[in-house]
Amino acid sequence: MTSRLILVGPPGAGKGTQAARLSEALGVPAISTGDIFRANVKEQTELGRRAQRYMDAGEYVPDEVTNEMVRARLAEDDAAGGFLLDGYPRTADQVAELDGMLADAGTSLDAVVELTADTDEVVARLLQRATEQGRADDTEVVIRRRLEVYAEQTAPLTDIYAQRGLLTQVDGMGSIESVTERLLSALGASS
Ligand code: AMP
Question: What are the boundaries of each domain within the chain?
Fold first, then answer.
C-alpha cells in the first residue's frame, strides 16, 4: 500500500486542495509545511517569527528551521503509518534530510507525485486566491518570485526522485474532481 508520499508542484498548482482530498481518500495525514508556518506566524510563535520575513518575500525559510519542524511533525503518532507531504522537500538539503529521517525510522518513500501546471494559469489562480484569502505572499511581485524560486530550487529535485523510480507526473489542470481521480489512479488507489 502506498502510504508515504510527497506531492510536489509549483505554487498555485492546487497542491493544498488535492493534498486534503488525497489525505481523506488514503487515510494518511496531509502535512503542509506552508500551513504549519502560516499557523505559527498567526500565533506569533518563535518559529513564526523566524519564518515570517522569508515568507513575506516569497523566499524559502532556511533549511535548518524547516527540517527541524518537519522532523518533529513526522515523529508524531499520526504519521507513523504514512503521510502525504505537501510543500516539502523543496531544496536538495531537505531531500537529504528527509532521507535521513526516514532511514532513522526504518521506512522509505513510496511515491513522489508532481502536479504539473501551466505558468499563466497558476499566476491567474494565485491572484484570484489573493483577493479571496488575503494571503500576504499572494501579491503579484511575490507570486513571480515564488515561481522563480520554485523553478530554480525545487523543480530540479524531481530528477532525483525520477532516478530512484519514484516519480509520477500528473496533469493538475481541469476540475478539482478530475485531478483527484488522476492522482488516485496514478497512485494505484482509484476505486
Ligand atoms: P506554500 O503554502 O507551500 O506555498 O508555502 C508558503 C511559504 O512557506 C513558502 O513561500 C516559503 O516561504 C515557506 N515554506 C513552505 N514550505 C517550505 C519549505 N519546504 N522550505 C522552505 N520554505 C518553505
Answer: 4-183
